[in-house]
Design brief:
By secondary structure, the chain is an alpha+beta fold. About 25% of the residues lie in helices and about 25% in strands. The strands form six sheets. A five-stranded antiparallel beta sheet has the order 6-7-12-10-11. Bound molecules: flavin-adenine dinucleotide (FAD).
């Protein structure tokens, strides 16, 4: 039976470490429990939010609805042949533990996604990515329940409609599905992605390129570069890198020849949100209890006692500064509630 908690503190459940309460909080630890819980119809039609590790969330207020928190565990091998292995993983597994487990078993593909905080269930939601790899290339399907009806659902990778930090779970199915399991296909033959200059440089310290060494190199880079959310409240990159058309990119590059721009397959050009923010004067800038990180301006940090509203206020100021200078809209990557 699912124990429904009321007026539940979310302080320990968000990496910004902002104080907020949920009117109701339900922890789901198995598919059976999910079946029973959704059969009660309790969550149907209520304002709801599925909360994993809270590392991509900003609570700007108390949450007047129900938070559904999956803690479903387990890594099950479904198939294996000489080339690949297929595994089904519980949504509540810690993402980085899964990466470590796969690297240890020499199942390759997701090693570049080492040290991304959060849970496995959230991975498909924003199609997590880092160091030239996106998780969508290793996902076979996501399984779960429709929250309103309790119906079991499965979405193939194609049906997940993955994009850059995007999927169907952020659009048409936003707040509609509880993902309980993610099925991954990982390779036994290595095919490493090491083109990122930071990664190449760090790998020079190792005698060979293996998944294990890539994982370690990325852990080193990230530990040196990013604030540890256990110590300093943050939710990683607050904004997505903006995608603009070729003409817009070219006209900006005429004024700002040093501006980085990365042409995409669809003809759009990806700009660096960090560069735009830095040029707008927001690198390492303080705004009351909030600041941008001194090495990575894309990360907004809680300097101690910031409220969610203060953090949002700072984010809106950054958005405005970039808009005023470059006429480019920064879209928030973090889920603001
Ligand atoms: C220091 C730091 C570094 C980061 N680096 C990266 C990075 O390199 N790349 C990257 O992509 N992200 C990065 N992130 C962002 C974040 O870690 C990822 O988005 C992660 O996948 C969020 O996982 P979570 O469990 O904390 O999800 P939450 O923050 O709890 O939720 C995120 C979203 O997923 C939904 N969700 C979560 N679990 C489920 C589920 N089981 N079913 C349905 N919906 C669900 C939520 O409703 C919400 O919309 C970083 C964050 C931090 C703090």
């Amino acid at each position: 039976m699912t124990l429904l908690k009321e007026n539940f503190s979310l302080l320990e459940y968000n990496t910004f470490h902002v104080a907020a309460h949920a009117r109701f909080f339900a922890e789901i630890s198995s598919e059976e429990q999910a079946t029973d819980f959704f059969a009660t119809g309790y969550a149907a039609k209520k304002t709801r939010f599925v909360l994993g590790g809270g590392s991509n969330v900003l609570f700007t207020n108390d949450f007047d609805g129900i938070i559904i928190h999956p803690v479903i565990k387990g890594i099950e091998k479904l198939e294996e042949d000489s080339e690949a292995v297929v595994i089904r993983v519980g949504a509540g597994e810690v993402w980085d533990d899964l990466v470590g487990y796969c690297v240890k078993h020499e199942w390759q593909g997701i090693e570049n996604l080492s040290m991304i905080p959060g849970t496995v269930g959230a991975g498909p939601v924003q199609n997590i990515g880092a160091y030239g790899v996106e998780v969508m290339h290793y996902i076979e399907r996501a399984e779960g329940f429709m929250i309103d009806t309790g119906k079991r659902v499965t979405y193939s990778a194609r049906e997940c409609k993955f994009g850059y930090r995007d999927s169907i779970f952020k659009n048409r199915l936003k707040d509609q599905v509880l993902i309980t399991h993610v099925v991954f296909r990982l390779r036994k033959e290595p095919q490493f992605h090491t083109s990122y200059p930071d990664l190449q440089k760090e790998l020079d310290n190792y005698s060979e390129t293996t998944a294990d060494n890539i994982r370690q190199a990325i852990i080193n880079i990230r530990s040196a570069k990013l604030p540890d959310p256990q110590v300093t409240g943050n939710a990683g990159s607050f904004f997505k890198n903006p995608l603009v058309n070729k003409e817009k990119a070219a006209s900006l590059q005429r004024f700002y020849p040093a501006m980085p721009g990365y042409p995409q397959q669809d003809g759009l050009v990806k700009l660096s949100a960090a560069w735009l923010i830095e040029q707008s004067g927001w690198k390492g800038k303080t705004c009351g209890n909030v600041a941008t990180h001194k090495r990575q301006p894309l990360i907004i940090i809680n300097r101690g006692d910031a409220t969610g509203e203060e953090i949002l206020h700072c984010a809106l100021k950054i958005q405005k500064a970039v808009m005023n200078q470059f006429a480019v809209k920064l879209e928030m990557e973090v889920n603001v509630l």
